[in-house]
Amino acid sequence: MVGLNSNRRTLLKVGGLGLLGLTMPNVLRAVEKATKGPKARAKSVIFLFQYGGPSHIDMFDMKPDAPSSIRGPFNPISSSADGIQVCEKLPKTAKIMDKVSVIRSVHHTMKNHNSAGYYALTGHAPPSDDQRLRESLALYPAYGSVVDKLAPSDGAMPTFISYPHVIADGSITPGQGASFLGKRHDPFFFQADPNANDFALPELTLPNNLSLDRLADRRGLQSLIDRQAGILEASAEARGVDALYQKSLSMLSSPKLKAAFDLSREAAPVREAYGRSTYGQGCLLARRLVEHGAKFVTVYFSKSIGGRSTTEGGWDTHGFDNTRMFPIVEKYHFPITEQTLPTFLNDLDDRGLLKETLVVWMGEFGRTPKINANKSRDHWPQCYSVLLAGGGVKGGYVYGASDKHAMYPDDKPVTLGDLSATMYHLLGIDPATEVHDTQDRPLPIATGEPILDVIG
Question: Each residue of 250-292: pLDDT tens digit?
């Protein structure tokens, strides 16, 4: 049970209250409150990570009355939600804003991609704002790894799946795996391109000369030898690898899992509607995975921060090699977002999946409201926007506000700890639940509070 240890401690405290004269009905109500976690609104989360940092002021928090040096070249248009405007380059996205909650007051202080990326992927602030931040057991695990630890999926379907990139800026951005929770809670990860005509996962395919029975027999013999040697009992890492192997063996024998990954089962018009891009087909695959029981799916927009091309890369657009920001987003980022995001949310809704699937669209920070000398925008974590949809979240709703130039929160500031607490809360996991690191220290899974106002 999620939060079992903390609830047991609370129950012991409650039991002692009877000695202080509390009546039994009051004690029972206290016990019920102590043992009952949040109501699960979402069965799964799809986390669409927009690596590089999308510009909030050019998309979902536009300031048309600001000076031209701030408002940029794009104009706002009305959307399907009263009071919500979006960029004129996103007319299809405007039509689905009645399904979305826009959080306009997210803020932190990490200005480097690796440190800010880690913060966004875990909900925990790094020890310093350092581009050289590396993965270590002192850092927190990814959201999906926490979910796999506390509320794993049933059967062969992995709880946590991520693809199709290992994101990095010079070095690999930490926060993409299980860290101190152990290898058994790492995501099922692959780098195969879902848009490829021959998309298939070798991880789910046995060599021609090796049957599943032979593989299981070999593993049984190896396990016996390991136990005799005391290896599994002595090494936590070995136990993690062994559990991971057993999970992989179960996956190899699962027709349901293979069917979930088989994009060829989708009709051609559906695939075209999502967009024949790696990201577009990745979002379509995410829909199939939650349909088949995955609990947390992370889809990375790009493997790099971007900034040098109008045909690939992430949202980092502050002017490498004299590249200008606005042509990049207009020619590349906006068209992909415009095709995939509305199709994705509408498809989930049409299938009855949106009400039980929380979709999170976010980057590690926004862009500076003031346009720089290169006619671009730089990193800006002090205030930016995040989109939430489905999974118990209100549609057509705005939470928080930025100031008149979208520089700082002006109302209801939100931390990344608050966002992570909201995700866990919607999944029915108490954000105050503790996990233990390699030193057996109890650590809370979230440092903030759920944003209850966005929950319908």
Answer: 565 578 888 999 999 999 999 999 999 999 999 999 999 999 9
Please provide the DSSP assignment of 38-69 as one string: PPP--SEEEEEE-TT---GGGTTS--TTS-HH
Helix, strand, coil percentages, rounded to 5, for the chain: 40, 15, 45
Kindly indicate the confidence band of residue 203, based on its pLDDT and cuts at 50, 70 and 90. low
Check residue 216 and give its pLDDT.
Answer: 55
pTM of the model: 0.85
Angle at 333 between CA 328 and CA 336, to 5 degrees: 140
Domains with residue ranges and CATH for the chain: 40-197+264-454 (3.40.720.10), 202-260 (no CATH)
Helix (H, G, I), strand (E, B) or coil at 188: strand
The pLDDT of residue 208: 57
Average pLDDT over residues 389-395: 98
Residue 414 contacts by C-beta under 8 Å, 6 or more apart in sequence?
A: 103, 105, 106, 107, 386, 399, 400, 451
Given a cut of 90, is residue 140 above it in pLDDT? yes
pLDDT at 222: 54
Beta partners for residue 455, in sequence order: 393
Chain centre to alpha carbon of residue 448: 16
Half-sphere exposure for 13 (CA within 13 Å, toward CB):
10
How remote is the C-alpha of 100 from its chain's centroid?
16
Residue 412 C-beta-side C-alpha neighbours within 13 Å: 16
Note whether 107 and 381 are within 8 A (CB): yes
CB 392 within 8 A of CB 41: yes
**Residues 171 and 132: beta-carbon distance below 8 Å:** yes
Q: Assess contact for 70 and 319: CB atoms under 8 A.
A: no
Alpha-carbon dihedral angle through residues 9, 149, 136, 303, given to the nearest 10 degrees: -140
Quote the pLDDT of residue 251: 60
